[in-house]
Amino acid sequence: MFGNFDFDVILRSAPYLFKVGLLFTLEVTVLATLGGIVLGTLLAMMRLSSIKPLSYFAAGYVNLVRSIPLVLVIFWFYFLVPYIGAWIIGANEPVKVGPFTSALVTFIMFEAAFFCEIMRSGIQSLPRGQIWAAQALGMTYAQTMRRIVLPQALRNMLPVLMTQTIVLFQDVSLVYVISLPDFVGAAAKVAQRDGRLVEMYVFVAVVYFAMCFTLSHLVRRLQNKIAIIR
Fold this sequence. Notes:
Blueprint: H1 7-47, H2 52-66, H3 70-89, H4 99-124, H5 128-136, H6 141-171, H7 183-194, H8 197-229
Helix pairs in contact: 1-2, 1-4, 1-7, 2-4, 3-4, 4-6, 5-6, 6-8, 7-8
């Protein structure tokens, strides 16, 4: 099976795979993580709110998104976002969004549901006495969350947030359904062009393993460090 393994095709295509495919994958991962954390934090605060409509809305959103396969969400958003954009601005024709923007919006909204639950767990892990102490000092709810609760919750949940980011990094490969050139998609194009499927997919697997294993190792070290601080 590996008797005719061609390393040259990997060397020739490596610049394209890294500069185009992997760069795209990392760009979507970073932007979707940042957007997902911001939106997920807002959803977590809504879920913990004493205002029931906000809490029910956030809970419904999280349960709905987590029940649908990501590949279907990507596919649906690719066709729905232009119509939603036209509806928002009152246009008569679908807005030209583009596959990249559509994919990015999809990942942010999808990952926000998972980051919401992570942040909610982090907030609930803090002693209620800290919130009562902040209220006794005259802080508002927003000041308490911004100055007391969220900084500690983010620190406690940092290893879990990083683990979810690793999962997101792997999930970005699903953008193949809308023909975007991520790392796997770029390798697939080279594989089909040169007829070297084994070489390309083995190389992709090795790169993914090396990056995810390294990041997972960093997460374990971070967990140990945070455990010592506690």
